[in-house]
């Protein structure tokens, strides 16, 4: 599973974990601080009450004159109010400091959460871009491969459909007829071909294509078939027919076809045919492809 998918499926859990990691300590601190403040208030109130009662009994209630006792009580009450105001101011300052500290903790927690989530978001964006790039590259490769396969399916394929030796007048003259055909689904352009015939002693064959002897440049459309006639010299024919029965010499036809397909690809087809030793001296003899020498790009 890509990491970007993992982030997408688990982003809410990451947010929850980060939130709890920073907010839970603040909640605990806030509860503990409030509990401490309540205990402090209760203790301060009880302590103030005890101190006030003690001071009243010590300073005021022992006086024998009522007016002096009343004046003493007024002074003690006023002093107690001043002390209470000072404690309330101090408590207010302490509460303000506590809430300021809490606000700093909250702001820091929010900042840390923001940093963590930003980091996770950056990782998510990075992995998403990486996955997008990988997918795009795979799509480009697939498109190129599909285009290449399509071109292979519909491009031109030019080769020989058959090669025949036609003997005339009982073997006094002969020529070779080659049939060139486009087996593809699109035309072949600028087709150049060279074909020649020769007789070799069995086991001493050497085949060299003379590319200077190129026939006319033509275009061959799909399923179109053209014919080319190769005359055989009388001396070569006599030598071949004279040794044909002894199976020491054989007749070969070989050459090369060059053309351009519809996608500007330059193609080459090399061919090599030979005539089996059973010869019909009164008609046509079909040559067969050799085991080697027939290939195409």
Report Rg.
54 Å
Total helices: the number is 3
Instruction: Give the SSE order as H and E letters.
Output: HHEEEEEHEEEEE
Q: How many E strands?
A: 10
Main structural class: alpha+beta
> What is the distance, rounded to the nearest whole angstrom, between the alpha carbons of the first and last residues?
42 Å
Strand content: 15-25%
Low-confidence stretches: none
**Share of helix, binned:** 40-55%
Mean pLDDT: 77
What does the largest sheet look like? 6 strands, antiparallel
Shape descriptor reads: rod-shaped
The number of distinct structural domains comes to: 2
Question: Explain this structure to me?
Answer:
The chain has about 300 residues and is an alpha+beta fold. The protein has 2 domains: about 5-150; about 160-295, Immunoglobulin-like, CATH 2.60.40. It is about 55% helix and about 25% strand. The chain has helices at about 5-60, 65-155, 235-245, and strands at about 160-170, 175-180, 190-200, 220, 225-230, 250-260, 265-275, 285, 290, 295. The strands form 2 sheets. Strands 3, 4, 6, 7, 9 and 10 form a 6-stranded antiparallel sheet that branches. It has a 4-stranded antiparallel sheet with strand order 5-2-1-8, with no helix packed on it.
Outline the fold blueprint:
Blueprint: H1 3-60, H2 66-154, E1 158-168, E2 173-182, E3 188-201, E4 218-220, E5 225-231, H3 234-244, E6 249-260, E7 266-274, E8 284-286, E9 288-289, E10 295-296
Antiparallel strand pairs: 1-2, 1-8, 2-5, 3-4, 3-6, 6-7, 7-9, 7-10
Helix pairs in contact: 1-2
């Amino acid at each position: 599973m890509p990491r970007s998918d993992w982030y997408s499926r688990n982003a809410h859990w990451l947010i929850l974990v980060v939130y709890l990691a920073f907010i839970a300590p603040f909640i605990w601190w806030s509860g503990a601080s409030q509990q401490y403040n309540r205990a402090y208030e209760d203790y301060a109130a009880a302590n103030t009450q005890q101190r006030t009662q003690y001071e009243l009994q010590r300073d005021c209630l022992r006086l024998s004159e009522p007016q002096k006792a009343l004046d003493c009580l007024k002074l003690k009450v006023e002093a107690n109010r001043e002390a209470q105001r000072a404690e309330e101011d101090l408590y207010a300052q302490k509460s303000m400091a506590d809430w300021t500290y809490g606000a700093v903790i909250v702001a820091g927690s929010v900042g840390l959460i923001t940093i963590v989530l930003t980091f996770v978001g950056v990782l998510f964006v990075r992995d998403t871009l990486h996955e997008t790039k990988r997918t795009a590259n795979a799509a480009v490769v697939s498109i190129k491969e599909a285009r290449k396969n399509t071109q292979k399916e519909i491009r031109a394929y030019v080769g020989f459909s058959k090669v025949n030796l036609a003997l005339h007048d009982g073997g006094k003259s002969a020529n070779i007829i080659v049939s060139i055909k486009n087996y593809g689904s699109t035309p072949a352009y600028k087709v150049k071909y060279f074909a020649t015939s020769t007789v070799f002693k069995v086991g001493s064959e050497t085949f060299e294509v003379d590319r200077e002897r190129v026939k006319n440049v033509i275009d061959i459309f799909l399923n179109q078939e053209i014919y080319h006639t190769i005359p055989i010299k009388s001396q070569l024919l006599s030598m071949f027919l004279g040794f044909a029965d002894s199976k020491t010499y054989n007749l070969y036809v070989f050459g090369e076809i060059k053309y351009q397909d519809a996608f500007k690809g330059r193609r080459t087809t090399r061919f090599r045919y030979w005539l089996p030793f059973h010869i019909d001296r009164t008609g046509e003899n079909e040559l067969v492809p050799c085991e080697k020498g027939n290939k195409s790009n």
